[in-house]
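Notes from hallway chat w/ T.B., transcribed later so I don't forget. T.B. wanted the structure written out for a chain they're using in a teaching module, and asked if we could keep both sequence and structure tokens in one place. Agreed to drop them here.
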Amino acid sequence: MDDIQIIVLSDAHANISAYNASLKMARKLGFDQLLNLGDLLTYGCNPKEILDETFNSIESDKMILIKGNHDQLYFDLIRGDPRYYNTLPEWIQESIDWTTDNTYLENFETSLPWREHYKLDNMYFAHANPFNYGDWTYLNMQDNYIRAAIAMTKHKKILGFFGHTHRQKIINVSNVSKCHEATGVDHFTSDFISKQLAILITLDSIGQPRNNNKRSTILIINKKSRRLNLKFVEVPYDVGVHKKTIRQTLLSNRTKEKLISLF
């Protein structure tokens, strides 16, 4: 495979300030492929703008768009299926209700070129994990890492890239009983990769980061013939504008404060 630079972003969650800044950064850095791991909506209050910019990026950047749980739930609600919605906390339900009340979503599923996953060389990209689509298990504990690594072998891939957790991690799974977090690692050689059962990479959310510093990041994957470089790049934006947009809505004060407290 020729050298290739891929930029991955995930979990915009209707935060248009972070989304625009992330796309601007990606274009500045340059890419051969741009991937969006889904969850366009909920939490933030700029759903129309997010959808418009997604259409634009698919057109101009050839962005590959993968479905997340906060995309699928709107597809389900439009079809009259509230089962996943009913499992969520009341404040998230209110955010979803606000989104559906303030956005035309009848064609949300059919108007965008959604994928359940994407494969390239020895890499696998999905929103949450490498399990069956609709299984939204978080990759956040050893048992799930091992299960994910086994699933990766069924896909015949080693490198897995996922959003959903809103937290940046690199997990090496060397066998079915051994895995560890690779802190401070920014590259892997092809020889090292070939000896792993799987390497699992989870991304921060650009729209609602849950890392300690609450900063949005995108991931640059630079794949060369015998080396894979990984770089998480911080994306500065005016979070005050995002908070102001939430405050100006008719959401309940309780839900507004909960959403704003995430930043």
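Follow-up for T.B.: The two ends are 40 Å apart (CA to CA). Might be a good example for the class.
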